[in-house]
Amino acid sequence: MNRTRIPLVAGNWKMNKGPAEAGAFVRDLLESSTHAETSAAASPRAEVAVFPPPVSLPAVAEVLKGTPIAYGGQNCHWKSKGAFTGETAPAFLAELGCRYVLVGHSERRNLFGENDETCGKKMAAALAAGIEPLLCCGETLSERESGLTFKVVERQLRAALGGLPAAAQFTVAYEPVWAIGTGRTATPAQAGEAHAFIRQWLGANLAPEVATRTRLLYGGSVKPDNFGDLLKQPDVDGALIGGASLELASFSALADSATSYLTGLIS
Ligand code: 13P
Questions:
Q1: Which of 107, 110, 119, 165 lies 20 to 30 angstroms, CA to CA, from 182?
Q2: Per DSSP, what are the bridge partners of residue 101?
Q3: Cα 146 to middle of ligand 1, angstroms
Q4: pLDDT per residue over 181-225, tens digit each?
Q5: Which domain holds residue 34?
Q6: What pLDDT digit, counting tens, does each position of 37-86 carry?
Q7: What's 15's domain CATH number?
Q8: Is the CB of residue 163 less than 8 Å from the CB of residue 120?
Q9: Ligand 1: residues within 6 Å at CB?
Q10: Domain for residue 34, yes or no?
Q11: Is 218 inside a domain boundary?
């Protein structure tokens, strides 16, 4: 982790936590982070964000609007309105106060037909609606075993980010598919190498300042006991967390680790 970028600890709840449970969870999360805030006085803190299912967003927004904890959608459509049953326009997420939206999560790519082209359209649409897109990329196990990791990630980055202006504000999550929900986390060296590749790509293909400011998150079986070593990698700026974001104790522990790391770097 690098001191110029504030780390982001993001919880992707996937299809978990309906409105009542989501509202109660963020109330507890807010309360526990307020306690930490008072004891940590004015020292810098990692940013925390949650990505609830769409129907739970209003309940989460009611609790978190105006607080330092951000929230976002897990998906959006690229059109602003129309006959697209089941879809959500980015402007609707913005109206609820969403700061972020996930684009191209591997579950959307593998289970729901999302592809490089739709990811590109969603990136542009989210930015136009004033929401920061969080692009997910990463290779499958067979792609890694065939030595195609960088080729796949490069293709995903080019399709989603290739046409963006240097001013575009986005985040990238490197989520190797083989590490998601499997308990098999990428080693810090594997994550570090992929993140360095992504940062170098941003610098060469968008602009050097994009590479410097863009946060790169690691995702895939992140737990409190492996996060610290991942954060030691200079290009890892936080995590996108599935399973361990569903329990208050583990999610708060992950947020606290990122904050301690940041504080340690700065002091
Ligand atoms: P797990 O942390 O459960 O492996 O999920 C990672 C993920 O897909 C986050 O988007």
A1: 119
A2: 73, 133
A3: 23
A4: 999 999 999 999 999 999 999 999 999 999 999 999 999 999 999
A5: 8-266
A6: 655 555 688 999 999 999 999 999 999 999 999 999 999 999 999 999 99
A7: 3.20.20.70
A8: yes
A9: 12, 105, 175, 180-181, 219-222, 240-244
A10: yes
A11: yes
